[in-house]
Amino acid sequence: MLVQPLPSPLPPAPPPAAPVVEVRAATRRYGNVEALRGVDLTVRRGELTAILGPNGAGKTTLLSLILGLRRPTSGEVRVLGLPVDSAAGRAGVGAMLQESGVPPALMIGELVDLFRSYYPAPRPARDVIAAAGLEGLESRRAGQLSGGQRQRLYFALALCGDPELVVLDEPTTGLDVESRRRFWDVIAGLAAGGTTVLFATHLLDEADALARRIVVVSAGRIVADGTPAEVKARAGGKTIKVRADIDPAVVATWPGVVSATRVGSNIEILALDADPVMRHLFASTARVDEFTVEERTLETAFLDIVKESQQ
């Protein structure tokens, strides 16, 4: 009788990769002001995440903790699996802040070479210049740059170390429409190549078009976290505008309707789903002159979520 050999054991599965960003129960106080209140945030490799929030919500403070520019009053922050203040962790991070400065007498090419010299394996200078749309401007001095060109320079400097994590705070401020679109394309390309991108913005259309994940911060807490579609769905789903012979107070009692108000000659209905509302509408009145159904915008959802969090 032939004896079949036992199969070789399968090699053990590799351990899961550590999160690129891990914030645990982080708080941050400035005197009596609590800017962050027990924030937990985990960002995985390759995620393209937008941080949204009203002024004073804690967005910039959260990014400052992740960059090691400030220490949490309590809690823990790790980047690339390492303590945020470790030199090895910082070498893998590129940052573009709201308030930055460089020597005005140095030229763009000189600044790029200087910043590249800080890293063990920098990205090629020509790639950095091209990504920021600064080709042909290498010999221009920083003090001669326009506001938009200065933003592009800061973006180039953030990429010099070929970082695994890029952190951007209001990165497209001062950019024209064409430059913004180019910036979006570069950021999307970085994320597609495995770079983790975390950016704060007050431009909600930018977050909706670019981010795969949206984190909303309000009053020092994370109050929403999900894909753009999931965040928008939290705020109600659909807006229905209809011109019909019916009382908005009646519409407001239908299942799935969040609110119904008259706006001029139309009734504006905020609903979780459009189909049951439209069935009720056509069953309740013989006169429907016109109607439109719109997805809730990220701006509307954002305002609703922030308002709810502050109540």
List keywords for this structure.
2 domains, Rossmann fold, 4-stranded antiparallel sheet, 311 residues, alpha/beta, 6-stranded mixed sheet
Could you explain how this protein is built, in words?
This protein is an alpha/beta fold and 311 residues long. The chain has 2 domains: 21-232, P-loop containing nucleotide triphosphate hydrolases (Rossmann fold, 3-Layer(aba) Sandwich), CATH 3.40.50; 236-295, 2-Layer Sandwich (Alpha-Beta Plaits), CATH 3.30.70. It contains 11 helices and 14 strands. The protein has helices at 59-67, 87-91, 108-116, 125-131, 147-159, 177-192, 204-210, 228-234, 248-251, 274-284, 298-309, and strands at residues 21-30, 33-43, 48-52, 74-79, 82-83, 93-96, 165-169, 196-200, 213-218, 221-226, 238-244, 257-263, 266-271, 288-295. The strands form 3 sheets. It has a 6-stranded mixed beta sheet with strand order 6-7-8-3-9-10, with helices on both faces. The protein has a 4-stranded antiparallel beta sheet with strand order 2-1-4-5. Strand 1 and strand 2 (33-43) form a beta hairpin. The N and C termini lie far apart (78 Å).
Spell out the blueprint of helices and strands.
Layout (H helix, E strand, L loop, with lengths): L20 E10 L2 E11 L4 E5 L6 H9 L6 E6 L2 E2 L3 H5 L1 E4 L11 H9 L8 H7 L15 H13 L5 E5 L7 H16 L3 E5 L3 H7 L2 E6 L2 E6 L1 H7 L3 E7 L3 H4 L5 E7 L2 E6 L2 H11 L3 E8 L2 H12 L2
Parallel strand pairs: 3-8, 3-9, 6-7, 7-8
Antiparallel strand pairs: 1-2, 1-4, 4-5, 9-10, 11-13, 11-14, 12-13
